[in-house]
Amino acid sequence: MGSERNGGGADRPAEEAAKGGAPPFELPEIKFTKLFINGCFVDAVSGRTFETRDPRTGDVIATVAEGDKEDVDLAVKAARDAFDHGEWPRMSGSERGRIMTRFADLVERHGGELAALESLDAGKHPGVTRAVDIGNAAGSLRYFAGAADKIHGETLKMGRQLQGYTLREPLGVAGLIIPWNFPTTMFGIKVAPALAAGCTVVLKPAEQTPLSALYLADLAKQAGIPDGVINVVPGFGPTAGAAIASHMNVDMVSFTGSTEVGRLIMEASARSNLKPVYLELGGKSPLIIFDDADLDMAVELAVSANFFNKGEACVAASRVYVQESIYDRFEKKLAERMKSWVVGDPLNDPRVDQGPQVDKAQYERVLSYIDHGKREGATLLTGGKPCGQKGYYIEPTVFTNVKEDMIIAKEEIFGPVMCLMKFKTVEEAIARANATPFGLGAGVVTRDLDVANRVVRSVRAGVVWVNCYFAISSDCPFGGRKMSGFGKDEGMHALDKFLAVKSVVTPLRGSPWM
């Protein structure tokens, strides 16, 4: 995910301003490396640790406590006690909102340190990270702080002499499992609605990027969030993540990550307490560019929609369809544009557009897909190779002559790889856009409102952007369809995941009206 409002895909000038205005990077102090359970930083029960590495070099940044099932049990117990006996769900919504606002203030006040941690851990540009990721997290906390006292039920008009109404109650202990591509953003958009609803939380950050979540946990305590309400357990998916998904005292799970792991979480829920599961998974999103588009704007959108955040975005528009009559001009402009795209160390060079992939495994995965594209007969327009003497850098790669049955056109790559294809008619564009098992996002570039409306209503995706991309905001629901998952992050719909609807019915005796 990215954010137009804070310098993401569609707002290139804001992104450039964020980059250009960044001060020289200073390595942050690593303050928190232990598990955060019941308001305290503690070692893992097993005493085990794991290394988090700098993707620019592969060097170790820090060793972090490795949570496992026993640690998840302790975190869930703390969250359960805080929910069943603590003050958080019993506070008024306005009081929860005031504390959440203090939390947002602290996130902004410590934005420089948070951005440095996330940039170091994930290989991101610190100026953009501060504008986008830190801004998104603080924005989500503020948005849902305002929603905390606006959670209402309904009065029911019943069919006989009965009075009915509904209550929307906090669900309980929420298990939140977040990815490594936007760790601070994802912390904010998962935790904020849970807190607003009155739930307590056990959160597992990705093992590649655990540092910002631990820092945020400390800020939450400083803000006055009671002990046990937020618990952070770094660790690995098959151990800590699986323990959350299968735990009998976790009341729901919200997961962002791969489709494969999403399936495992649903299986774990089915085998345990049938807890509700909400998934935001992979994508293979189309960007459809019609022949009346502003060509320069369309090229910039295509570049941002694919290469923002190194292509490590679930909603990246990795399938770009350009109408046949403008295809050759578009391809030429795109090739020229990519000549000025800078790959390098984003922490020490403000000109850099693209840093390293998050770790060696992802680096090798992306390169393997590029090799697939070459073997299957696609043509390299740009890129296609690793770059740099160390670290996990890959040239931004554009393939042409891509066929729909090629692996690079069907599977999520999660890296800086674009598939550029041409189409003739609106009908063909819609059919090809929908010819995927995924349904997370889509983009349409046209000046024709009728065409835009037709495509918007025809493409099966959770969000469709018209003449923009990555236009994500706290008040706009975000989530997918098909194998891209279900349930919404952001917007008031995000509260639904953390609330149970209870119907209350009493008899009406002697009422003068029905």
Automatic annotation (TrEMBL):
**Molecular function via GO:** aldehyde dehydrogenase [NAD(P)+] activity
Positions of region (Disordered): 1-23
Q: Which Pfam families match?
A: Aldedh
Q: Which reactions is this enzyme annotated as catalysing?
A: octanal + NADP(+) + H2O = octanoate + NADPH + 2 H(+)
- PROSITE patterns given in the database record: ALDEHYDE_DEHYDR_CYS, ALDEHYDE_DEHYDR_GLU
InterPro entries according to UniProt: Ald_DH/histidinol_DH (IPR016161), Ald_DH_C (IPR016163), Ald_DH_CS_CYS (IPR016160), Ald_DH_CS_GLU (IPR029510), Ald_DH_N (IPR016162), Aldehyde_DH_dom (IPR015590)
Assigned keywords, A-Z:
NAD, Oxidoreductase
Composition bias (Gly residues) maps to 1-10
* Active-site residues from the entry: 280
All copies of the Aldehyde dehydrogenase domain together span 42-504
Listed under subunit, the entry gives:
Homotetramer.
Q: Which family does it belong to?
A: Belongs to the aldehyde dehydrogenase family.
Q: What is this protein called?
A: Aldehyde dehydrogenase 1
